[in-house]
Amino acid sequence: MPEHTIKAFDTELQDIARMIAEMGALVEKQIAAAGTALMLHDVDAARHIIPVDLEVDKLQQEIEHKTVLTIARRQPMALDLRETIAALRIVGDLERMGDSAKSIAKRVISGAGERSPAEALHALARIIERVRGALRQVLDAYTRRDVERALGVWRADQAIDAEVDALMRELIAQMTADPRKIPICTDLLFCAKSIERFGDHATNIAETVYYMVKGKVLDAERPKSSAVQYGTPARS
User: Fold this and answer.
1) Among 37, 47, 85, 41, which Cα is nearest to 208's?
2) What is the overall mean pLDDT for the chain?
3) Per-residue three-class SS string for the chain
4) The pTM is what?
5) Rounded to an integer, what distance in angstroms lies between the CA atom of residue 219 and that of residue 69?
6) What are phi and psi of 28, to 5 degrees?
7) In this prediction, what percent of the chain has a pLDDT beyond 90?
8) Domain 3-230, CATH homologous superfamily name and number
9) Phi/psi zone of residue 108: left (φ > 0), alpha (ψ -120 to 50 degrees), beta?
């Protein structure tokens, strides 16, 4: 391509990356707010998560539109093509993370967190911090094109699954021992599964970063704990 075309293409790719970073920051904000709302049973905070999800959805649409236009206009090849494909994949995972945060918010509004076992809430808060860290790390890996950093997130997902699995088992045990806890524990089970999906989507992004940089699909089997028996991973 002529030099001026290459510069314009680089600018477009940089704009897409900047917008993805902005979308990632909004999603992390949603995740943090969902954790706070759940811990404190803060219905007002939960309600504020839903409008943020509209911002996330709007950014997804803008990024997808800009990426498709870039592909049509520049007809990229090799690494450039992989970068544009990666952008489409990543915003899809970020949007679904936002949806999971919204699901937790709706549970809080409907009663999750009220009279919840303190131990379960502390466990959920700890797992949320893990997935927030995973999201920050994998987006940094995307920005830096850092495969090893992305693989660190990929490997760490098993620990997140194990914590979710342990929490789910404890909640089920509590429901079995005291049927009066079934409604609140059921809500917390759904919240735990939403949190586990955060980790799955961060892992998806890690695999996308690997593909973008290496030009091939990560062929190793994704590490998983038995937590997936409660639901399927975000992407096989």
Assistant:
1) 85
2) 90
3) CCHHHHHHHHHHHHHHHHHHHHHHHHHHHHHHHHHHHHHHCCHHHHHHHHHHHHHHHHHHHHHHHHHHHHHHHHCCCHHHHHHHHHHHHHHHHHHHHHHHHHHHHHHHHHCCCCCCCHHHHHHHHHHHHHHHHHHHHHHHHHHHCCHHHHHHHHHHHHHHHHHHHHHHHHHHHHHHHCHHHHHHHHHHHHHHHHHHHHHHHHHHHHHHHHHHHHCCCCCCCCCCCHHHHHCCCCCC
4) 0.89
5) 31
6) -60, -40
7) 77
8) Phosphate transport system protein phou homolog 2; domain 2 (1.20.58.220)
9) alpha
In this structure, the chain runs to a length of 236
Residue 234 has pLDDT above 50, yes or no: no
Tokens standing for 94?
């970020």
The pair phi, psi for residue 221, each rounded to 5°, is: -70, 135
Which of 90, 70, 75 lies closest to 12, judged by CA?
70
Q: Over the stretch 14-73, which tens digit does the pLDDT of each residue have? A: 999 999 999 999 999 999 999 999 999 899 999 999 999 999 999 999 999 999 999 998
Which residues lie below 8 Å from residue 101, measured CB to CB, with a gap of 6+? 27, 30, 31, 33, 34, 49, 53, 194, 198
Token pair belonging to 202: 């961060």
Q: Tokens 């919204």 belong to which residue?
A: 102
Q: How far is CA 220 from CA 147, 207, 210, in A?
A: 14, 10, 12
